[in-house]
Amino acid sequence: MIVYLNGEFLDAADARVSLFDGGYLYGDGLYETLRLYAGRPFDLEGHLHRLTRELGLLGYAWRPDPGSLRAIFQELARRNELGERDARARLTISRGGSPQQPLPVERVSELPATVSAWVEPIPAEIPRWQAEGIGVSIMKPPFARGNFPQLKTLNYLPALMALRFARAEGCEEAILTDRQGKLLEGVSSNLFVVRDGKLATPPSRLGLLAGRTRALVMEIAGAAGLVAQETGIERRDLLMAGEAFLSGSVKEIVPVVRAEGATIGDGRPGPVTRDLQARYGQAVRAALAAPASDPAAQ
Ligand SMILES: Cc1ncc(COP(=O)(O)O)c(C=O)c1O
Q1: For ligand 1, is residue 155 a contact (CB within 6 Å)?
Q2: By CB distance 3.0 to 4.6 Å, which of 70, 114, 171, 258 could disulfide with 166?
């Protein structure tokens, strides 16, 4: 596998990051995951907009250049023979670390950031999940995503542990909750439920990553005449929902048909979810077919 690291394309086995890198020592870093459609990044500008804001909040001097990153992802897709297929792309930025001072606390913005990227095939199970739906486990509060849940930082341990528990229970995703028992999001996805013909998703103020796909789903739903609201969702709301689904850049829209072993709706992907999946696909195709000046097409 060929990866990108600090300006070079390398075999993954030859790509080395310093022992003093802040990402390794403290989880001091940010990342983005997006989907390439036949080698072309979708919504790259949107992802980089989020990343730029987060880099500013964490005091990083490095800023992404959309043109260079688009070229890097396309080159990675080509070199890894993924130019004709859909792929998962990851960009990671971490605090570069200093060989002179292993644990720098001050002037960290002066350290050159470590910038890495790679692309890999879409996980084989995703098309099946999209077609058949998945089961989720609802986790207890300690598994929520740390103190800065609105940021896509490298601190993923609680969520990763939640996912391992969910998998051990035979579920594909874990739903994270806050201390009041409100549902927040999946480990790498946002949650939606359909109730009385309306779409609801947990409010971002509760502390979650308001995903790019979530925003697009809300927009598409609104354009289709479906009421889409940010509303508190509790465990029983999910269990009693007519339909539920998860959204994320790589998995797009995945129906949730089981929670805690109970069936949601009739246990099959519902009509609203199916319709949104189709509309999402159309929106992606339209954006990728649009002239290069359309940011979502990049
Ligand atoms: C915790 C969390 N929530 C939501 C999402 C979905 O975000 P997006 O739609 O931007 O991919 C992700 C994506 O990885 C995530 O890690």
Answers
A1: no
A2: 171
